[in-house]
Design brief:
Shape: elongated
Structural class: mainly beta
Strand order of the largest sheet: 1-2-3-7-6-4
Strand content: over 45%
Number of helices: 4
Length: 452
């Protein structure tokens, strides 16, 4: 769980606007805080602070007339004063563990755990023990992944009781028993997890937004995820509800498609699920000439004027892996395993012709599964990337030339940014899962965001 931060505060911090607020609020004890959470006994000026998962430290300014007996709990409040209004967020409640006063300064260390003895039934599940523990210390238990198997495991043998002289020993016990970790992401809420709780996203597609100056990548497995970037080098993780195989930005909206699902977003951060005709969609493209989104997949095709309402179309019985539109050629091209097909309207699809009147499959530069394709109007070329770690380019969708990728990864998608003058491709594996190129020929490895 995580707290909701006021958008005005986020915008102010991003624009470096407003006056910084940093203070520590103290109360006599936990009961005093519970009775008067918005009225601290004392508000302190702060020189520095550090907040960790379940602990914090800070240095306060004092007139050397305040003693430890005056307070036992504190919170750290920070934010900004913007246009005369304060916007702040608060830490959880910390119980003083270390106190040192010297020369007008107070140094504090605190813990999320009160100094209490704990005794509760131990021969029940991990989830039951954790929830009972949190109730005993006045906190709420949350779990990063409520489907984790360890939550149902038995904590102690039958007949055994969990007894602790200090509540904070519980965290060490969890680490020793099953490498269970915890953090206070929201005031009063302790969130428990293991490494298995964090499923790594498998990024499958990437696209560029000129108006937002933003790249967005979507995941197709592991955990639903979107990652955004402004430069193809530094990435920020976002949250998605569903898995998606492809994404595109056009007509002021991000559109993503997957297995019988579509989604839209105006900012790359908040996504809304949409209905699309049944089928597994692998790619989506937009024609500004036709004002039309086109999605293709395993023998399926659908079109939409806005990414919200979709209509099923007929396409050849192949697993179409990618589709792109060229304004210059006024043509959609869809690719599969060494095969291409075309459409001028997104509704009627035909194979390329080798000779007049003889329809055949147009052969790509190799027999790879060409998973991603895009058009660069500045370079007047299509660029395609494949599962097998290869790249190809073409000026017309007919004649293709093989290129060397930065690494032999499973490349899933590629997009072109005119502002950055770069192709950007993403993969599902490898040490560096992003690569960029200024011309489709020479490629450089990049590092994507870590999964959270």
């Amino acid at each position: 769980m995580s707290r909701t931060v006021n958008q005005t505060l986020l915008d102010g911090l991003a624009d470096q606007f407003g006056d910084v607020i940093l203070r520590v609020n103290t109360w006599t004890d936990q009961a005093d805080y519970i009775a008067n959470p918005s009225t601290p006994d004392h508000v302190w000026e702060v020189l520095e602070f550090d907040i960790k998962s379940t602990s914090a430290s800070c240095t306060l300014v004092t007139a050397n007339d305040y003693t430890l007996s005056d307070f036992a709990v504190f919170i750290i409040e920070r934010g900004a004063k913007i246009s005369g209004t304060e916007y702040t967020i608060e830490s959880g409640l910390y119980f003083v563990r270390k106190y040192k006063e010297d020369f007008g300064r107070i140094y504090l260390e605190g813990s999320s755990y009160p100094n209490l003895k704990i005794s509760t039934a131990g021969d029940v599940t991990y989830q039951t023990v954790i929830e009972a523990f949190c109730t005993a210390i006045g906190k709420t238990a949350a779990f990063k992944n409520s489907a984790d198997a360890w939550l149902g495991y038995k904590f102690l043998p039958t007949g055994k009781t969990l007894s602790l002289n200090k509540a904070e020993l519980f965290e060490n016990l969890l680490k020793q028993k099953y490498t269970i970790l915890v953090y206070e992401g929201e005031p009063g809420v302790l969130t428990f997890y293991t490494q298995d709780s964090y499923l790594s996203p498998t990024f499958a597609a990437v696209a560029w937004s000129s108006s937002l100056a933003q790249i967005a990548a979507v995941s197709s497995a592991g955990s639903p995820k979107v990652a955004t970037s402004t430069n193809a080098e530094d990435w920020t993780d976002r949250t998605a509800t569903n898995f998606h195989n492809a994404v595109v930005f056009a007509n002021a909206v991000w559109v993503a498609v997957g297995a019988s699902v579509a989604a839209t977003s105006t900012d790359g951060i908040t996504w809304t699920t949409r209905t699309i005709p049944a089928g597994t969609y692998n790619s989506v493209a937009y024609s500004s000439t036709l004002d039309l989104f086109v999605a293709v997949g395993a023998s399926v095709c659908a079109t939409s004027p806005d990414g919200i309402t979709w209509t099923a179309r007929t396409i050849g019985a192949y697993t179409w892996l990618s589709v792109a539109w060229s304004n210059d050629l006024e043509l959609f091209i869809a690719t599969s395993s060494g095969k291409n097909t075309k459409s001028t309207d997104g509704e009627t699809w035909t194979y390329f012709t080798e000779t007049i009147g003889t329809p055949v499959n147009r052969t790509a530069a190799g027999t790879s599964d060409w998973r991603g394709i895009c058009w660069s109007p500045e370079l007047s070329i299509f660029c395609a990337v494949s599962y097998s770690g290869t790249v190809m380019t073409s000026p017309d969708g007919i004649t293709w030339t093989s290129r060397t990728a930065a690494a032999a990864n499973t490349w899933m998608s590629v997009c072109w940014s005119p502002e950055l003058s770069l192709f950007c491709a993403v993969s599902t594996n490898g040490t560096s899962r992003v690569m960029t190129s200024p011309d489709g020929t020479t490629w450089t490895s990049r590092t994507a965001a870590e999964a959270n």
